[in-house]
Design a protein that fits this description.
Keywords: Repeat, TPR repeat
Largest sheet: 2 strands, antiparallel
Helix content: 55-70%
Strand order of the largest sheet: 1-2
Order of helices and strands: EEHHHHHHHHHHHHHHHHHHHHHHHHHHH
GO molecular function: DNA binding
Protein name: HTH psq-type domain-containing protein
Organism: Heyndrickxia camelliae
Mean pLDDT: 84
Number of strands: 2
Shape: globular
Length: 504
């Protein structure tokens, strides 16, 4: 019997089999040797969950990700090994150098290749590292500064993108503003900054960023597409139609622009136009991400191209198997999960630099279907890292006894109650609605400092909802919001004034 099996027989009693990290590591290695990289990745990820501090597992997973062209994830693993798990695994510097070279980040590649040779000049990969340095050095020397700037820009942009995707919008905004200040002609930073403001519900700021971009770079297709999405969500139909009339006449040559245009038309419900561009890319042999196959499948099905739709969905499931069951031809398809079931996003929010985002992360734990998976995750921060406010809130969410002892007035619970009322009317939580909850928790934090009791939860929820809609330029009346939260219009007006004191 395998040494890592926990199966034992004692006096006729058979204990259940509990696989260990070593068990999954060995399965991952076997799959790797069979060149089944997807299975290898799956097994090694499971091994790492069971033994998160074992550097050999992390290193092997990094190598598998490297061969799957998942360079950013691979780099994250090698960096973690060097910074946290085992700084003596010097070969990780060589692996990082290779990944950065594949990404075109030659300055970073050069730095890590040199670091490897400095630490281990006679190491296993010394010759390969010297060859890599030679290749990098064949570039013209006068390109060194521009390469360094390009490397820095790409790395900063990637970091901002990850922050946006994980819901850390405020931090992403600060990073992007710094980028624009330093590199005022880096147009993609403007587009991402506008998206950050959009997700926070600060529509005027989002629009101003796009206006500034279009003033400096007229005809920027990404800005025009993003503006169309903003107008769509604000129900500004006349302005949207005018913009769409212009977008329909554009014939972009770049693949990136064709994809952006197709995805935008799909999002706006213009399925025939979306199918034209996305299917054109497919016919050219374009290999997109999961989002590409998702939109292609939906617009193909809605325009009568069922075979193309099914083929695209099959490719989507290879990249995102969790989408099974939500096919466009499935009448019982469920709505895509919002932030509340994105484990990585919640874990990232809990580690945000901003208290309102961390409290929002704890709220998400209260409504997620994956609570146990989150709190038992290796990246779930230890209780010592939580502030007292966060501990009290987490105690409320997990229904621990600590809340009665340290929060006898139940103020933390009332704050949670307001968020829950908002959730009743705004779920699932998508990126463009997260700003509503950030707004509430920001108000809540400032109110706590002033000793506010938050007694009338319905009134606070109604006031936040109304102000949020105003920020989005949504046309909704005070009487409608009052009915929604079962309060009088005069009470709503009173609490609108109240929350404006705590949210500037």
């Amino acid at each position: 019997m395998a040494k890592d099996s926990k199966l034992r027989q004692e006096q006729g009693v058979v204990l259940s089999f509990i696989p260990t990290g070593e068990y999954y590591f060995n399965k991952g290695i076997n799959a790797y040797h069979r060149h089944d990289l997807k299975k290898a990745k799956k097994y090694l990820q499971r091994a790492m969950q069971l033994e998160p501090y074992e550097p050999m597992i992390a290193c092997q997973l990094g190598l598998v990700c490297m061969q799957l062209d998942e360079f950013q994830l691979s780099n994250d693993l090698f960096t973690r090994i060097l910074e946290e798990l085992d700084p003596n695994m010097t070969e990780c510097h060589y692996f990082l150098a290779n990944n950065f070279a594949e990404l075109g980040l030659f300055h970073e590649a050069y730095k890590h290749a040199n670091k490897y040779l400095e630490i281990d000049p006679y190491g296993e990969f010394a010759e390969e590292a010297e060859d890599l340095i030679y290749v990098i050095n064949t570039e013209e020397t006068d390109l060194e500064d521009s390469l360094y700037m390009q490397d820095e820009l790409i790395m900063k942009q990637e970091k901002a993108r990850q922050l946006l995707e994980s819901g850390n919008f405020q931090m992403a905004i600060e990073n992007l503003k710094e980028m624009i200040e330093k590199y005022p002609d880096f147009w993609s930073a403007y587009n991402n900054l506008a998206l950050g403001y959009f997700y926070l519900g600060e529509m005027e700021k989002a629009a101003n960023v796009l206006k500034e971009l279009l003033d400096k770079n007229p005809g920027n297709l990404h800005a025009l597409c993003n503006l169309a999405v903003f107008l769509f969500h604000q129900h500004r139909d006349e302005e949207l139609q005018e913009l769409l009339d212009g977008l329909e006449k554009i014939q972009p040559l770049l693949i990136e622009h064709q994809y952006k245009l197709g995805a935008t038309f799909a999002l706006l419900g213009k399925h025939h136009k979306a199918f034209y561009w996305l299917n054109k890319l497919k016919k050219k042999g374009f290999e997109g991400d999961a989002s590409f196959y998702y939109w292609l499948s939906h617009v193909a099905y809605s325009t009568g191209h069922e075979q193309t739709s099914r083929s695209a969905w099959k490719q989507l499931l290879e990249l995102s198997p969790e989408k099974e069951g939500s096919e466009p031809w499935n009448n019982n398809q469920q709505t895509d999960a919002g932030f509340e079931n994105h484990v990585t996003s919640i874990l990232n929010k809990l580690r945000s630099d901003y208290l309102e985002e961390r409290l929002f992360g704890i709220f998400l734990i209260s409504v997620t279907d994956r609570k146990q998976e989150i709190i038992s995750h290796s990246d779930f921060k230890s209780l010592d890292e939580f502030t007292i406010t966060e501990k009290l809130y987490l105690a409320n969410v997990l229904d621990a006894g600590m809340k009665e002892q340290f929060d006898p007035d139940g103020i933390i619970g009332k704050g949670h109650g307001v968020a829950s009322l908002l959730y009743e009317h705004h779920h699932p939580i998508y990126p463009q609605t997260t700003g509503l909850f950030h707004m509430w928790f920001s108000i809540f934090i400032n109110g706590l400092k002033e000793g506010v009791s938050f007694t009338n939860q319905n009134a606070y929820a109604a006031a936040v909802d109304y102000v949020w809609n105003q920020f989005q330029n949504e046309k909704i009346s005070q009487s409608e919001i009052s009915r929604r939260y079962h309060i009088s219009p005069s009470t709503l007006q009173k609490y609108i004034k109240t929350i404006r004191q705590y949210y500037q």
